[in-house]
């Protein structure tokens, strides 16, 4: 089952610090490095590791950050389908000593889509499609939603992200009417639903989407609700080094497993292992060797 992945590929500027400084303070960095990232790329990387068929539909712009992305994709023989003339932005990923990350993003060409671009896609080639809330939030997010509305046969995997409450109400209404499979973390779903408990928040989101809700709980595991019941799947405790890309890897693994006809529960169990591996290393993408150490396939 082929997956269309719509979204950004960016240069992650990873800045390691002891702690985030308060306003007016001065904090020295421990280390700075550049990594390939972006939600769509991170998801596509996971499908590639699982040897699942996919197309990465991502704009690659100009400038130093666009060149960084272009060089990486060319090196990995990943087709570049969209090359707008605007410069790419980047994502400053600040990682403190706990391994938790804080993002400061400059959105460039990689986050904006044009209606005409979707004419390149034969939607009948795909069963699954992944989208991220960051692109939906932008002014061109309507073009992505319009494409999805024209292709109701597609199963949508929607990861709204930490800016879920910044997505316009009308956009969210249109998306939820398409019954996407939702993938969020606990803070995101509580913020959007304005419920006090996880269980009530999941019930609220299920009423809106009428499809599976998957909530990652970090070190605790994953909670999900499907058409029959609610389930909790624990995960193995690990020591985090860097949590960048853990959520993207989690949903990417789920999509890859479902495309191989695995049951959802088994897919989430595997996704928990994958995200646990990601947080134990720097950067968002696992290498082939690191993936093989999991002995999943």
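Sequence proposed for the structure above (297 residues):
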């Amino acid at each position: 089952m082929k997956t269309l992945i719509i979204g950004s590929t960016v240069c992650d500027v990873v800045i390691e610090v002891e702690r985030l400084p308060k306003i007016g303070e001065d904090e020295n960095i421990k280390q700075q490095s550049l990594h390939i990232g972006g939600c769509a790329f991170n998801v596509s990387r996971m499908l590639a590791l699982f040897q699942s068929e996919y197309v990465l539909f991502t704009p690659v712009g100009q400038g130093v950050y666009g060149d960084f992305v272009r060089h990486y994709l060319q090196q990995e023989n990943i087709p570049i389908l969209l090359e707008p003339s605007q410069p790419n932005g980047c994502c400053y990923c600040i990682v403190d000593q706990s391994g938790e990350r804080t993002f400061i993003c400059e959105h460039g060409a990689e986050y904006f889509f044009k209606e005409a671009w979707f004419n390149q896609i034969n939607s009948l080639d795909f069963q699954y499609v992944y989208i991220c809330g960051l692109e939906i939030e932008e002014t061109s997010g309507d073009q992505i939603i319009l494409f999805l509305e024209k292709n109701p046969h597609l199963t949508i995997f929607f990861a709204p992200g930490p800016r879920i409450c910044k997505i316009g109400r009308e956009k969210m209404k249109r998306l939820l009417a398409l019954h996407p499979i939702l993938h969020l973390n606990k803070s995101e779903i509580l913020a959007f639903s304005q419920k006090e408990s996880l269980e009530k928040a999941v019930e609220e989101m299920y009423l809106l989407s009428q499809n599976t809700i998957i909530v990652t709980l970090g070190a605790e595991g994953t909670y999900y609700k499907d058409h029959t019941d609610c389930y909790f799947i624990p995960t193995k405790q690990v020591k985090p080094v860097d949590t960048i890309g853990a959520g993207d890897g989690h949903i990417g693994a789920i999509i890859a497993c479902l495309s191989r006809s695995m049951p959802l529960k088994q897919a989430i169990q595997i996704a928990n292992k994958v995200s646990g591996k990601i947080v134990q290393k720097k950067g968002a993408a696992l290498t082939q060797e690191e993936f093989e150490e999991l002995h999943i396939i």
